[in-house]
Each structure stands twice: as C-alpha cells, then as structure tokens.
Amino acid sequence: MKSSLKLVDCIIEVHDARIPLSGRNPLFQETLGLKPHLLVLNKMDLADLTEQQKIMQRLEGEGLKNVIFTNCLKDENVKQIIPMVTELMGSSPRYHRGENLEYCLMVIGVPNVGKSSLINSLRRQHLRKGKATRVGGEPGITRAVMSRIQVSERPLMFLLDTPGVLAPRIESVETGLKLALCGTVLDHLVGEETMADYLLFILNRHQRFGYVQHYGLGSACDNIERVLKSVAVKLGKTQKVKVLTGTGDVNVIQPDYPAAARDFLRTFRRGLLGPVMLDLDVLRGHPPAETVP
C-alpha cells in the first residue's frame, strides 16, 4: 500500500458505522496521512444513528473532517462520494502528478467493512458496469493490492482495492469483541458463544430488546446459556448426547449451543434485532475494558 502511494491522489477509508469511534487501524493515519482522506462509514442501515451529530463532532476532533455515513450495497447512497472526492482533490496539491488528467484513489480499511461493495456500487453508478471485485460476508476475500479499477469516466477516476488490514495490536478486549461482532475477524478465532455473550451484554446495556421479540422469549435475560437454550429449542437445534450412568449409556437430547450462538450472531448482523450502536459507551465517555497484552 505504501509503495503505491505515489500513484494515489486520495484515500477512501471504509469502516463499519456500528463502530465509528473504535477499531480503525491507527497506522493508516500515520503512514497515509499526507493524502486527502475521506472516511466512509458503511452499513448505516444496521447502526443506531440517534447520536450521529455527537459522533461527527468526535471524529472532527480527531482530525477527520470528511466523513460520510452510507450503505455501499445501495447504489443511490454512493452518489455523493465521487463529488466529495473530486472536491477534496481539487483543494489539495497533486505534488508531481499535476500534468496527469486522471485520478487514482486507494480504498483502505479493516477486513469485511465493505470496500469491495463500495467499488462495485461506484462502477454501477457511474459506468453502468457490473462488479469488478469479489464480495464476501467474511474477512479475507481481497488478498492483494489489485490493479487499477475504473469507477468514473468524467472525471476519469481509478481505484486501487486493498486487503483489509487490522491494527497489529487491538487496543482493548472490548474493541476486539466489537470488531468480531462486525465480522472483521473469523468467528471461530474468537468463539461464537463468547461473541454471543458479549452481544447479549451490549443489547441489554443499551436497552435493545429486539431479541426478546424475535426469538419469542418471555422477557429480557442476561444469562447467555438460558438465551441460547431458548434459541436452540425454538429453531430445533438439538443434538443427542450419550451420557454414562450406573446402568449403562443413556441418550439425552441437549441444545446445540454453538448452532444457537451462530444464529444469534447472524440475526444481529442482518439487522433483524434492530439497529445497534456498539460504540455508545465510547461516545458517552465510559472507559474501555482492559488492554489486550
């Protein structure tokens, strides 16, 4: 990415709108900071943006003045990106590229935040062409800095897609869990049941009780085992387990907790539990959990 910078006029950083204040790779700002920079907060339809103004003020305080909330899967939502980028580049010196009439952008971000979806939407919006990059629901689809992809004719504009890059050190346990909930880390590396437990904690803490209605629970509950048991029974996710007794083996029907946890996470990620702002604690000044060693 650093070696390609000399070709780049502007950086577009894509991040998840549910974690606008945490989880971004600080090395992006340090190593790519000389270029004009637009922060695109994707998946806004999944985020509770009640306090959007406060979020924008916090980001501006961190030096990020060019921020846009959007949903990259909907072409009409990316209309304003090219005009914003054009204006940014017009007010910035192009160093040794002033004689070159075409523009080159670099799309960066942590894994699975929608970089490829953004590129494909821009191509459909401005060129009426199909997808140029692979899109997936898990991190690690884009594996290398690709060749230039055209996204606009007037002005002539190309994009460099890049693989998702996490910070080498996650600032806290809680930030790591937020990133995992947003799908930037493969679930099995963290553990579905651990993630489901943290998700339940967040939903209850922010009084987001959509899960109670969705799964037909009697009331809110802070015990993840009880919640997953109810989810498993409702979905028919059970398994036979042999139990040794004094009189021989007995087959017992048990809830499939991992399968229930996977469904709980999948339902959250599809927005079926309602919009959620995972960074509400950061916005309100609560200290993060302990730092990961």
Automatic annotation (TrEMBL):
- On whether Aminoacyl-tRNA synthetase is a keyword of this UniProt record, the answer is no
Keywords, A to Z, come to: GTP-binding, Membrane, Mitochondrion, Mitochondrion inner membrane, Nucleotide-binding, Transit peptide
Q: Where is it mostly found?
A: mitochondrion
Choose one Gene Ontology CC annotation of this protein and give it.
mitochondrial inner membrane
The biological processes this protein is annotated with in GO are:
mitochondrial translation
InterPro entries for this protein = G_CP_dom, GTP-bd, GTP-bd_ortho_bundle_sf, GTPase_MTG1, P-loop_NTPase
Which residues participate in GTP binding? 42-45, 112-117, 164
Cell compartment(s), UniProt: Mitochondrion inner membrane
* Gene Ontology molecular function terms on file: GTP binding; GTPase activity
Q: Has keyword Transport?
A: no
Q: Membrane topology type, per the record?
A: Peripheral membrane protein
Name all CP-type G domain ranges: 1-168
Sorted alphabetically, which PROSITE patterns does this protein's record hold? Answer: G_CP
> Which domain of life does the protein's organism represent?
Eukaryota
Purpose: Plays a role in the regulation of the mitochondrial ribosome assembly and of translational activity. Displays mitochondrial GTPase activity.
Family label: Belongs to the TRAFAC class YlqF/YawG GTPase family. MTG1 subfamily.
Q: How does it assemble?
A: Associates with the mitochondrial ribosome large subunit; the association occurs in a GTP-dependent manner.
Protein name, per record: Mitochondrial GTPase 1
The organism's taxonomy opens as: Eukaryota, Metazoa, Chordata, Craniata, Vertebrata
UniProt gene name: MTG1
